């Protein structure tokens, strides 16, 4: 009978877990709608601003007086990898995919002889990166108090990174997950400092070359104003995309967990019934044997 009690206890435990995973799936699905709407609404502005910045940068002759966020430091030796992850787990492979992309880039840069530092946004990326690159984490920005992402949060992060740009690194790359659907979240690596120049023949380069645009004030003054804002906008986009990706990945993970719990309950129930039937049969055999002995 002890085994029957153990099986029954496991069934009760798995059913309890199934209720939790089902509830978490429903909560994630509700949050996903709002997060997806915000991420999709923020994409056009961030993409267009990135294109405009690249177009403006291609028109300016970089010199000693140029903004540092445009001109850079003149070197390519120290790279800062800004890795944005969530503060909570139970979201499938969402966090691990972002960290894996950052690790891959870090390994490539170090093979080229570059120095790599990490700037972490969120808590979930720290465990792996601290284990592999224990002395290369320069800062972890705590986002645990943020309930809903705002531009002010992104601006605070951007200002902190811009301050560190004064000699602490030469190039900054941003890593996050672009939301495509509840099943697909694509890890993205984006250079945010200095502004990357458009590649020859790219759509942005062709648009800038073909358009006759006059700027008032001049391009350099506009750049000095827009460069810090562009960094904040790109980080804001990353936070919005991450918020949607996290909920989509969590919804999918909890759906799979709920299904797996159902399968386990079925298997345990079959095993429980078989064990119970075997116990009943054994008792009947013992009763019949005892009656025959009399």
Describe the structure.
There is one protein chain. A 5-stranded mixed β-sheet has the order 3-2-1-4-5, sandwiched between helices. It contains 7 helices and 5 strands. It is of the alpha/beta class and 294 residues long. The longest helix has 75 residues, at 219-293.
Please tell me the overall pLDDT.
Answer: 86
Please estimate the helix content: 55-70%
Alpha plus pi helix count: 7
Uncertain ranges: 207-211
Give the amount of beta strand, in percent. 5-15%
Count all strands and give the number.
Answer: 5
Order of helices and strands: HHEHEHEHEEHH
**Largest beta sheet: strand ordering:** 3-2-1-4-5
Can you summarize the main beta sheet? 5 strands, mixed
End-to-end C-alpha gap:
27 Å
Write the layout of secondary structure elements.
Elements lengths: L1 H58 L8 H4 L6 E7 L9 H18 L3 E7 L4 H7 L4 E5 L9 H14 L6 E9 L5 E9 L9 H8 L8 H75 L1
Parallel strand pairs: 1-2, 1-4, 2-3
Antiparallel strand pairs: 4-5
Helix pairs in contact: 1-6, 1-7, 5-7
Summarize the structure in short.
The protein is an alpha/beta fold and 294 residues long. 63% of the residues lie in helices and 13% in strands.
Q: How would you describe this structure in keywords?
A:
294 residues, alpha/beta, five-stranded mixed β-sheet, 7 helices, 13% strand, elongated
């Amino acid at each position: 009978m002890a085994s029957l009690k153990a099986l029954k206890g496991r069934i009760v435990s798995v059913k309890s877990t199934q209720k939790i995973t089902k509830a978490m799936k429903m909560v994630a699905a509700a949050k996903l709608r709002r997060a997806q709407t915000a991420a999709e609404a923020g994409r056009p502005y961030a993409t267009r601003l990135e294109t405009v910045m690249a177009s403006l940068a291609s028109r300016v002759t970089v010199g000693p007086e140029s903004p540092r966020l445009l001109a850079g430091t003149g070197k390519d030796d120290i790279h800062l990898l800004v890795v944005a992850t969530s503060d909570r787990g139970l979201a499938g492979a969402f966090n691990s995919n972002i960290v894996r992309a950052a690790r891959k880039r870090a390994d490539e840069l170090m093979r080229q002889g570059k120095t790599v530092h990490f700037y972490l946004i969120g808590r979930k990326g720290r465990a792996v990166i601290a284990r592999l690159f224990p002395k290369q984490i320069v800062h972890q920005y705590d986002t645990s108090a943020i309930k809903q992402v705002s531009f002010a949060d992104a601006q605070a992060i951007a200002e902190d990174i811009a301050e560190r740009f004064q000699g602490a690194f030469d190039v900054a790359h941003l890593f996050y997950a672009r939301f495509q659907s509840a099943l697909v979240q694509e890890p993205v690596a984006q250079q945010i400092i200095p502004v990357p120049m458009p590649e020859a023949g790219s759509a942005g380069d062709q648009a800038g070359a073909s358009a006759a645009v006059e700027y008032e004030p001049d391009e350099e003054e506009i750049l000095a104003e827009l460069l810090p804002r562009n960094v904040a906008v790109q980080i804001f986009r990353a936070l919005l995309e991450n918020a949607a990706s996290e909920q989509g990945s969590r919804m999918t993970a909890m759906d799979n967990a709920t299904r797996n719990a159902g399968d386990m309950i079925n298997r345990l129930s079959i095993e429980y019934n078989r064990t119970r039937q075997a116990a009943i049969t054994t008792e009947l055999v013992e009763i019949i044997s005892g009656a025959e002995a009399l």
